Structure formats: C-alpha cells, structure tokens
User: What shape does this take?
Amino acid sequence: MTTIKSKADLGLIAHLLRRAGFGATPQEMDRFSEMDYDEIVDHLLNFETPDYIPQDFISRFHKDQSDLRLAEGARAHWVYRMVMTETPLREKMCLFWHRIFATAGTKLIQNRVVVNQINMFREKGIERFDDLLLALSKDPAMIMWLDNQDNHGTSINENYGREILELFSMGVGNYNEDDIKETARAFTGWSVVNPEYMSIKMRNNTVRPYGYISWQYQYDPEDHDDGEKTILGETGNWNGEDAVRIICEHKATAEYIARHLYHFYVADEVPVPQWPHESPRDPKAIQAMVDSYFQSEHSIKAMLETMFKSEFFKNQSVRYARIKSPAEMVVGTMRLAGPIQLPSDETYYAQAVCSNMGQALLGPPSVEGWQGGNEWINTGTYVERINFASKILDNPDKVGVRNIIDRIKVNVGTNVVTSDELVSACLEVLGPVDVSVMTENRLKEFATKYEKLGWQDEVSSKEFDKAALSVIQLIVCTQEYQTA
Assistant: This one.
C-alpha cells in the first residue's frame, strides 16, 4: 500500500535530494516519495552499481571526451556523467573531494590524469578516510601537482608534506613546521613513472609534446629516507603509510573532515582560512560526525549517514541555506531538462558556463580549491546562472521539459487553470520549491499576462506550453532555486 506523503514530507525529501544529489527530478520524487526517509538515505549511500557510460558512442562522436587530454572534452565528459548518473551522491562526493583535494590540469599539461583522480574518488570516496588519503598520496596527478616526484631522501620537497596536513586532513594550528618536514621525509621515494619509459626509470615530469604521458605510481626504496621520524608526537621509522595512519588517528582530522562535510552538505560556513579563528556554526553537529568517524574506524560513509539522518540536517533552518555551486546549479538544471541525447553540444556549453561562473571543473584556481558560499555570487555570475537555466529549459520538445509540463497539467487536475494555479503547480513539480511570499507574489503577478490557460485543442495547448515555460524559466531565476 502506497503511503501518501504530506507536503512537509515531500519538502524534506526534496531538501535531501538537493544536498545528496543535484536536486530532485520529478521521476526521483515519484520513486522516493514511496519510501521512508532513512530508507532513501540508505539507497543514496549504496554505491555498488556502476553507472553505464556509452563509451563506444562517446568515442565515435566526441573523440576528445574519450581521449580526455584537453580540458574542454574532459570537463564535458564529467558533466555528462553527473547529469546521467543513477547514483547522484557518488558524483556529488567526487565534487566534494575535488574541492578539497584540488588538482588542476593546467599545471599537469593534460587532464586525463585528473579524470583518473576523479575515478579514484568514485571508488573510494565513502570508504575509510585512511584508504582514501593513501590512494591520494599514490595518485600520479597529486604527486605531480604537489611536486612529490622531487621529494628525495637526500633532499626533501615539503610541498606535499605541508598540504596533506594543512589542506587535506587537519587544518592550520594542529601541527608545526617539524611535522611538515618529517611528513615530507616519510613520503620520499613516492613518485611516478611513465610505463613507456619504465626501463630507464624516469621519475621526473616527462612531458612530451601535446602531453602524451601516462603516469603511474612508483615507489623507489633507494630514494626513501629510512631514518627515524617524529610525526605529530609519534616517533618511528615511518613511511608514507605510517604518516597517513598517524594523521587519520588524530582528532583534529575527524573535526576537519566533519566541518568540510557540514560546509558542503548542510550550510555554508565561513571560508576555510578562517576556521582556525572561528568556531563551527554548529559544534554539536560536528561532534556527532566526529564520534561517528571514530566509532566506524574512520568511515566517511558512516559520517554521511549520521549527518543525513540527523535532526540538524532535517531542520528547517538549514534548508536553502547553501548557495549552489556552479556545477550543482548547472547539473541540476540539465537533469530536469534531460536526458542528454548523444551526440550533444550541451555538455560543452555547460562546462564553459561553469568556468564563466567561477568553477572550472578539473581546474581549481589553486591548491586551496574553491571557497564557495557568497563567493559564488556576483552580478556577472548571477546573469550567467539565469541565462543558462533559462536556455536549458526553453524547449518543450526536450524529454524532461515535456515531462514537467505534462505533470503540471496532471497536478492541476483540470484542463483549464488560473495563472495562480499555474504558478503553484510549477513550484510543486520543479521541487517542490519553497519560495518566499514576495517571490510567489511576483511570480503570480507575472503569470497574469496569460489570461486564458487550457489545453482543449492544439492551439490552446501550445499557448499553455508557452505560459508554463515562461513561469518555469522565471522560477529557475529566483534566489530560492539558486540555493540548496
């Protein structure tokens, strides 16, 4: 027997799907409205089934999305995966880790190795943090991005040793300069090799013309510092694996990751550089996730489950409390209009718009990634957001758009509607989207330009489509749609 959800229940489900995905499509709302909330969370956290990617078709029609060396093709390919995924939280976690473990194809000359790093996030993104951090430390893109190929037993390079403590695990104030040096020593000999040149053991940046390289992780024991090291108060003949273990056992690491999860999934915090000086927005929420981290042997999945099932996540005060990143807004809108029919230029347009709005996928501005929050919005980027959302949803013949319009008719229940009823039906089908009284009044005021709305014949049906599209396009321009 199907349980009929109240509007409050549907609002909570829509809130969860905005945060644990890219917003609810009508089809997702149909499916999840028949499930209990905790059951939905468990479903979203199930990453066992890989997404189907028509690689042969992509290779035939979009060669650069198969080759993945050039930025535009690599970014467009990730957009395609985010739009078409059946496991949106998995792709959302890739965005989460890409924001923290920021690695850019600009310095690396090519983008395939960064795509490989994103693939690693798909595999390990909700496993034990120890396993993820170890995989990151062996990731060729990260090694080259932070110069660990130049970190030798006889002459250390502190770059990775510093960033793994400062930006990737603990945050400023929880280690000292000696910890940085000792951690760098632990990672000496962790480098890359290009398989084509493996016989001559080339460990340096072997960039040939046009970036024809295929780095793989390689450990060189002869280049490793075997001496005794003291990292975060623990002394021993440590290597990189030991450094990761010591870091992940530290309470500051659990707190740092918990605060990042809260910042990304619950509500915008102050920018990360201010964290050492300002307390978390909700210390009890952070502590709940920290407890989950240690009780589950450092499981990210356990922290996510604790967060999504908590009262602090469900609370009305945190709904629409995050500004959507460009990628979240772009992908969510495309999922509403979708699916993508290959071959398609829309993914190229989408990746370019993300860049114009300040989030070039696979190309974060620095090792600090993107700060997010209010930094996503200014007069220029807001115009880009409005123009993109309006353009993507402007064609009633698109499968997703057609489905939305047809559902609006069903939602109304009659074949003649008032302009007020049209606005209410659009808000319901697109989310449901909760808007302020002022926003709703403005939407209804706009809709009064359509005096007679119905679909009794072909002419009136086309007029209704036009009216519905206009209201939909205005809704996706609202402040509420631009937040999550």
User: Anything to note?
Assistant: The radius of gyration is 24 Å. The longest helix spans residues 458-475.
